[in-house]
């Protein structure tokens, strides 16, 4: 019995069932409502993406905001206004093909459904924004361990005092993820992640967290915190939480995102979209 | 007498007068209407950019088009809708700070002024798109000669049969520039230009022109044609002529661009914005 037929035979599935499935197969499982959990570790090697859906009347400003802040907000695809269809990084329907969503009205979380068909409107535009899962695999491939994976935590995420370049109503501080890197691997970590501009690219800061307004023991998010060893250097990358936080703070009346950790799985191999 | 004071003393200037001027000084000369010629070779080392100004009602679709076609259309900056001010790649006014413009109404060229203040409207959005001058300097630095410079021609530009990924009303074939590269330098040419995604990046095609619908002896533009030697390989890069051609073909009712060869000179060193 293949993995796929095993899946087909079951009403719901476990994360182990999903291992080895292709991005297309995974999106089918999500679409059928048989998996509503996280996507970390699934379809290894394929890029995953953050989702933000906004009304068309703020889409131009939002796209300009992302263009001005490519490290936290690397846009990988934008739908045609009014269309929920992804055509470049996969052939997929944003209303159904993620495992779970967050729906915000007037800046307040109102629902976390597994399907947003009932929320879709013909004035919405979908934005896919690169996710750090891609460069994390590249770090592992280069022999740079990921502490949060080793400790079975979510990567640490912080709000900095570094202001993004504003665009219209979109303004606010950059959100970053932090990974402890051994001092003698910091240069390699910069080189490796620079190859992936579509998934946040190179670090935005290395070393002293206080220079960007971060206290490593206080995250503004529900994420892990690390004990730093003597030879650990904190390395900070732009985080896809930035555009969500900025959009929420701008009091957009309606927004849908992926639920944290429940990302869009693309058909693009991360290595196939590396800069070089 | 410094170069600058020599400039200040003259009503108009020659291209030699402009050599050694900074981007800021050059933009001042353009703003004062004392140079309306081309910008090739000026402010060496600094990125130059193509300009397209469009009405806001098509700006979102145009930006999505560029996002989907990053090699011919690498957006480096977008103005706030209604504003002619560049704030990131320079502090500059798009109405005055280029040497010469082309103004199109209903797809027809109606004027080529040195100042577009009288044409500015509060619904316009300015787009700067990276220009190949940046990676050309990098090719020269790597010992890869540029035939069109050696022969004192404009680089060859062709319309291909490769369709861009469309977005709304924006659709059409990719326009490319071609440079003959010696066979043993082709790999290095790919490596060198890959570092500059903001200025068209890596080639889109190497070798047989017929595979992309190009006859090397027939350009659709007023550009040079090269005799290829036995060991020459034609190498094709995405060209900033693409978004202009696509915007014109889409019958936008109003558009302003730089005049061909009369680009926006930015304050960014090309090497400072290289991918790695």
Automatic annotation (TrEMBL), chains A, B:
Pfam families: D-Glu_cyclase (PF07286). It is an enzyme of class 4 (lyase). Coiled coil: none annotated. Keywords: Lyase. The keyword Magnesium does not apply. One of its GO terms (molecular function) is lyase activity. SUPFAM superfamilies: PSTPO5379-like. It comes from the Bacteria. Its EC number is 4.2.1.-. PANTHER family: D-GLUTAMATE CYCLASE, MITOCHONDRIAL (PTHR32022:SF10). Belongs to the D-glutamate cyclase family. This is Putative hydro-lyase KEU06_23740. It comes from Pseudaminobacter soli. The lineage of its organism: Bacteria, Pseudomonadati, Pseudomonadota, Alphaproteobacteria, Hyphomicrobiales.
């Amino acid at each position: 019995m293949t993995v796929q037929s095993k899946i087909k035979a079951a009403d719901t599935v476990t994360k182990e069932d999903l291992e080895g499935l292709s991005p297309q197969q995974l999106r089918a499982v999500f679409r059928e409502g048989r998996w509503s959990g996280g996507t970390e570790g699934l379809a290894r090697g394929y890029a995953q993406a953050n989702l933000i859906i906004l009304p068309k009347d703020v889409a131009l400003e939002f796209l300009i905001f992302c263009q001005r802040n490519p490290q936290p907000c690397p846009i990988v695809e934008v739908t045609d206004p009014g269309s929920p269809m992804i055509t470049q990084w996969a052939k997929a329907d944003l209303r159904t093909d993620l495992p779970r969503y967050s729906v915000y009205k007037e800046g307040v979380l109102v629902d976390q459904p597994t399907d947003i068909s009932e929320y879709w409107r013909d004035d919405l535009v979908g934005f896919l924004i690169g996710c750090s899962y891609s460069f994390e695999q590249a770090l592992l491939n280069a022999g740079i361990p990921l502490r949060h994976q080793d400790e079975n935590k979510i990567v640490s995420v912080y709000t900095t005092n570094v202001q993004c370049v504003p665009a219209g109503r979109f303004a606010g501080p950059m959100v970053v993820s932090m990974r402890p890197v051994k001092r003698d691997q910091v240069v390699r970590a910069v080189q490796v992640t620079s190859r992936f501009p579509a998934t946040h690219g190179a670090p935005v800061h290395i070393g002293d967290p206080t220079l960007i307004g971060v206290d490593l023991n206080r995250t503004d998010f529900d994420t892990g915190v690390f004990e730093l060893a003597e030879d650990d250097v904190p390395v900070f990358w732009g985080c896809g939480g930035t555009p969500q936080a900025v959009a929420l703070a701008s009091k957009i009346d309606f927004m849908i995102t992926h639920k944290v950790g429940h990302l869009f799985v693309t058909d693009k191999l991360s290595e196939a979209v590396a800069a070089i």
